[in-house]
Amino acid sequence: MNRIKEQLSEVFSNPALSRYKVMVVPVFSALVCLILIILIIVPHIKSLNETNKLIKDINIRNDTLSKKLDILRQTDKALYQDNFKLALAAVPAEKDVPGAANQLLFLLQSSKMQLDDMNFAISGNAQPSSDKISDYVINITATGEVSALKEFILKVKDAARVMKINQLDITGGRASNNIQVTLTLAAFYQGVPTSIGNIDQPVSSLSTDEEALLAQIKNFQKNTPIIESEEVTGAKGKSNPFQ
Amino acid sequence: MANISINLLPPEIGVSIKEKVSRKKILRISILFLVLTIILSATILGMEIYQRLKLSEAEKKLNNTKEQVSFLHEEEILSFVLKNRLKSISSLNEQDSLPPQSFNLIVALMPADIRMLTFSIGKNGQTSFSGDTTNILALETFFGNLTDSSVNEGKIAAAKVDNLSRGANGNIRFDLTIILAGAKAKT
Asked: Can you tell me the ipTM of this complex?
């Protein structure tokens, strides 16, 4: 240490350098300060800000996921499965033409109307879309009284399977009270989504409106029982009869 | 009596003392700055280490929650598809079906003596109606019901008689075109 001091005093004893002796410490500290500011303070203040933002975002995501977790924990799986089956009765995942025909036949019969003709206008065999509701047309020609038609219209509105009457043509009978009606109905269906988005997608429990809607469908289903096709069991035969 | 001070030091010594004082001042200030900068840098580095710890803790918590949510994936799918389906059903229920509405309205406005011969309504709500009667008063009442907004509750926008004829047997036959109020807004 003493040697260094001696050497420094020798250096600064030089009259040319002794003038700058007073500047050594301030210049040195200024340089160190500058280096610290450029290399540590400025970049780290920036990264502090970014990290803070990141922590906030993660905490928000965590809060959202925790809420989602609470809702999912409260979800009664069996009840939701039953409710989904109920919702599928209103708007099925497939066209379910037999189901629609069964319902209409049941409604016509219970309204005391006689079916003359029924045909379906189904275009395409594509997989039903899960994004939008698709429909197909059912044309019905039936005979009955005006009061029976009124009852039928009311029953279609209150049926479990959602259908809409798009066209109504009536021809009155001159000799009797019976009228002949030609109806064009739309039967709806919608595919089930195959993906549900990412994990951050929020989930909410059923609202009172949705619960009321399910109760309404349940009630309608009691009025219009839908005959579900049973799965065929037992011998199924050859998969390819030409082989 | 005021004190009188006399500076007996030679002026060179005074100048060198002043220089020394200012040198010391500069030295102190520069050291102070250096120390302050070092403290600030150390604080920032310390804060960053603390933040990194907090970040890893938050990430750990998030991953834990994600894992728990993924265990309940089936419930999530059920909830999503059920809500999606109920939304579709609600949207369908909100759509008015004009033909049944129109039929019920016209049947309600029709007096008992009027007989419906044909009735036709499409999705756009334009209704064609033809009927007959032997009672002219019933026909008048029917036309009045179709055109009086207080009777039809403003549900009929326009009613037009396309044809009106009377047979030899006194039977009056008429053809009408009725436009529903909702239909006019839609077309």
From this structure: 0.73
